[in-house]
Design a protein that fits this description.
- This protein is an alpha+beta fold.
- Helix content is about 35%, strand content about 30%.
- Strands 1-2-3-4-5-6-8-7 form an 8-stranded mixed sheet, with helices on both faces.
């Protein structure tokens, strides 16, 4: 019995769909380690260290961020664990490799693996680690995992329109500003913020990687200038 053209076409489409399903990457807990920082999947054991990190500079008082108060860190960790179990996010504790202290946190979020994209966000560091190699290396580790291990097409970053420091830091990574999402989020104080959207694509990743590696090479140590 000879198959019709439509039958053949349908079978080809089914095979392609199966291949696409098989090729969808999986976001699993993983430790990402560099010279200056180690990104460990966030667990309850990081609670006390994370409290110390947010106290370093009283980060919860920054109106343009959503850093938890120390009394809310337990809930912050629990929410992260629930989101990880659901496959929506993967939060990390950012650990200073020189001291073993928790410096802050960051995460993969807005995960959409079938479409090969996610967001890097909810990033904060205690004041002692700001303007050091910590954030640069953490971004290098996460972007390397996203593009080279997960095979993603796109990584996004969102930040408060008012947060000039964050916007400049994201731009220094080599990310492209795509636009402003108006009335995008309600902050803890009730302010309705606009969010600035940045992205890095797989095609841009080699140049961005080179840029980050060069930036780290200029550092003399984890607390270099």
């Amino acid at each position: 019995m000879t198959e019709s053209t439509n039958d053949v076409r349908q079978r080809v489409q089914q095979v392609q769909q199966v291949r696409q399903v098989r090729q969808v990457p999986q976001l699993r807990p993983v430790v990402l380690e560099g010279e200056h920082v180690r990104l460990e999947p966030l667990e309850q054991r990081h609670h006390d260290g994370l409290c110390e990190a947010v106290r370093d500079g009283e980060l919860w008082n920054l109106q343009v961020t959503l850093v938890p108060h120390p009394r809310d860190v337990a809930g912050f960790v629990e929410q992260a664990l629930q989101a990880r179990a659901a496959g929506d996010q993967l939060a990390f504790a950012t650990v200073d490799t020189a001291t073993g202290r928790v410096a802050g946190s960051t995460r993969f979020m807005a995960v959409n693996l079938p479409y090969r994209r996610l967001e890097i966000g909810f990033t904060f560091l205690g004041r002692s680690w700001q303007r050091t190699a910590a954030n640069t290396e953490a971004k290098l580790l996460m972007l390397t995992h996203a593009f080279e291990e997960l095979g993603l097409n796109r990584v996004e970053f969102l930040t408060d329109f008012r947060n000039d420091t964050s916007r400049a830091a994201i731009a220094r990574l080599g990310a492209t500003q795509e636009g402003v999402l108006r009335s995008h989020m309600v902050m803890r104080d009730g302010f309705v913020r606009d969010s600035v959207l940045f992205s890095i694509t797989a095609a841009e990743w080699p140049a961005v990687r080179q840029r980050l590696v060069a930036a780290l090479a200029r550092r003399r140590g984890p607390h270099g200038a």
